[in-house]
Predict the structure.
Amino acid sequence: MQRIRTVGQLGVAALAAAMLVACGSSDNNGSSGNNGGGSSTALEGRGPITFATGKDTSGNLQNQVDTWNSQHPNEKATVIELPESADQQRQQMVQNAQTKSDAYSVLNLDVVWTAEFAANRWVVELPKDQFDLTKFLGPTVDSGSYRDKLYAAPSTSDGGLLYYRKDLLDKAGVTAPPTTWSELQAACDKVLKLPEAKGAGCYAGQFDKYEGLTVNFSEAINGAGGVVVGDDGKPNVNTDQAKTGLNNLVQGFKSGLIPKAAITYKEEDARRAFESGKLIFERQWPYAYALGNKTDGTSKVAGKFAVAPLPGASGPGVSSLGGHNLAISAYAKNKASALDFIKYLTGEAAQKANLLATSQAPTLTSLYDDAELAKKFPYLPILKQSILSAKPRPKAVRYNDVTTAIEEDAYAALNGTKSVDDALSDLQTKLSQIIGS
Amino acid sequence: MATTTNVPSSTVQTPGRPKSRRNEGTGRLAASLLSPTFIVLGLVVLYPIISAIRQSMFNSNNGLDENGFVVEGEKFVGLKNYTDIFTGDTAHRFWNAFYNTTFFTVVAVSIETLLGLAMALVMHRAFRGRGLVRASVLVPWAIPTAISGLLWAWIFNSDNGIANVILHKQVLWTTEGFHAKVAVIIADTWKTAPFIGLLVLAGLQIIPQEIYEAAKVDGARAWRQFRLITLPLVKPALLVAVLFRLLDTLRMFDLPYVLIGANKQSAETLTMLGYDQAQRLNYGPASAYAFILFLYVVVVAFMFVRILGADVIGTARAQRQPRAPRRPRTPAQKEVQPA
């Protein structure tokens, strides 16, 4: 008797739960997609705003925000620091958008997220006429656009650079940094004979199975004359040039040109290896320049290295475009204030101050042409060249799927599980399925 | 004091009232008193499960419309997510993760149990500094798993890690291969053997000292005492500890994710697959993975309780209860009180 009653009550509870769920679900289909439409309606609302960005490693951001706050006491900005990892930043922003929360007003988007955030209507279109887009580097504006509309204003940029040990190259008699992969190998042959270079590896990039691998892979392919995704938006990675590019890396691992441990390297691992003198050449982002020159004992190569454009097939190569853009969340309350804040942070004064404090690449052409800055940051002209010739990573709404597919096949090729031909043909098939849809 | 009164877990035991009154009356009162608990349980346990099952039958990535915006809304796909998991393009990834999960569970839990048992036996002895040993043994368990993942990532770093220095070899721990599994198992065992040790210690402290004395009088040596007295009497606590660890390790996520990285065949577990799908906003397949893992865990727990008789709700102890009041009068017991 009692057992039947207990079972009966459990059954009623289950039924009630099921009805709750069924009722709850039918609401989802219609309601989303009403807010944050894609048209560039005038952005309204003034008041306090928040700025969601990844961990500020420089400490300079708060200074800039304080300046804004003192100039706009009624539109105070608060910095919300998200985790350091790019994946986790994206996750937080996506969750914020899916719950339609107004907690974040301005979002600091990585360049590869523009398509996803725009297509999902999580960010609103920015009025192009309120930005002087001619002052920005072309590829950076392109990285913030989706279907010819501007969704995110470029605030920092990034291009891959070849860091090299100038002191060792000079000693070995190599006068100019290598511009092709074969020149790099030849330079290494000479340098590794020196007693100072004992035990060092020749070259390393970022080859662990994460976004950095997509970057390095794209650079190797593009540098050999191939493409991952063509200008028409369709994947075309199963070409001879792409095979040469990938083969450079694979043979590099096999022959010991690239140390075996490099397959576990992310940015920081590669930087540490270079700074402790274990590498002659390193593919790295500009942020490591200031860190490499630190004289507090963390870097053994302070003052001994220089940068050059990445090596290519028959001349300077192509780097992947990195960087961050600023966008306005579709669910933010004070969009007009957010727009002004974005204009402030992408303005010349703020970008110059940021460059001086963090050595992060700015997006305004004028800052690269400034002679005084070029003296302080000798890599600026090379970086400008790198960015102007940089190729963006594939622009896809489902970018996560794209980068996972690339990582799978690239990693398999690098550690010898798949042959180069198989890896590229498999990748072509997968990318056609993802990007084709 | 060791467990004397046995508080019955409210959901399953019928209230042990003297059966002097009408049965139906007390039953109705019990039902109405328990219904708030049922409602809360229904909301917190049952609703998410049913919601996940419902979500696993829908797909939300429906492509782009002509303006380039994502088509909103969910589409009912029935059991397609499940068939995709078992027999679709990524089926090998699923079965690989299934194998990894099972491998980690079996191997890690076995090692943890042996180590935990050994730790408990050591902690049970009265010696100077025992309190310090007990506290320090618990430190690995107290550290959050993600943090211990980072710690071990440094230890297993291929360039600068202590592990490679000690071994005088350069093992690339975080790359694909069996070494990745070894790294995960070492880190997991380090963290959780103390947990088993602690639970088993509690079980050891219940065993009356007089049994050991009687055995010594009978001439039984240490190993025999261990095999015939300690093990059988500590079995309930040990089995509960092992059951908890089984269920936890089946759901392992943070260690392989932080230590080895996402998307690596050698260390990918079922939870990581579900997380990967959720990251890409494919909530349908993610819920399907979660539900499959849920079924796996339920089956394992059920088999464990049935076959090995893990005493999860203290029914065996309730039967032993009449003997408990005798214990305080035994003078020999005083030595075994916790320090």
About this structure: The radius of gyration of chain A is 25 Å. Chain A has two domains: 49-158+321-388, 161-320+395-436. Residues 23-39 of chain A have pLDDT under 50 and may be disordered.
